[in-house]
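Q: Structure tokens for this one, please.
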Amino acid sequence: MLQPKKTKHRKQFKGKMKGNAQRGAQLAFGSFGIKSLDSKWVTSRQIEAARIAATRYMKREGQLWIRIFPDKPVTKKPLEVRMGKGKGSVEYWAAVVRPGRIMFELDGVAPEIATEALRLAAQKLPVRTKLMVRRDFVAQ
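A: Here is the predicted structure, written as tokens:
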């Protein structure tokens, strides 16, 4: 019996979100970090909101590294526009985040301040996260 031919759906053009992070899964710069547990698009506005929340709590002490970059343009057509006439304009930029990806890293502050700053930053993100601590970290 013949099977019906599979057609491409619009979802395939937006990129696949399956699998874990291939790179950026270990702490590289700081002693503390937040790791993603979900697959999502994180917009540039969400990244900036998380950065501001963390740096405000740290009172600009220590250093914060942002390990994700919004390099995916997401387009959208205006409301009530007919089909055709090309692709819509860029609505926002997003970073593709997969499970295991380290998104933010922190160093140069006390462990209590670091955990609270990263907790506040994680609240601004659309993914579930987990706090990471460097294996060889020793509190001073």
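A few notes: The chain has a mean pLDDT of 90. The longest strand covers residues 89-97.
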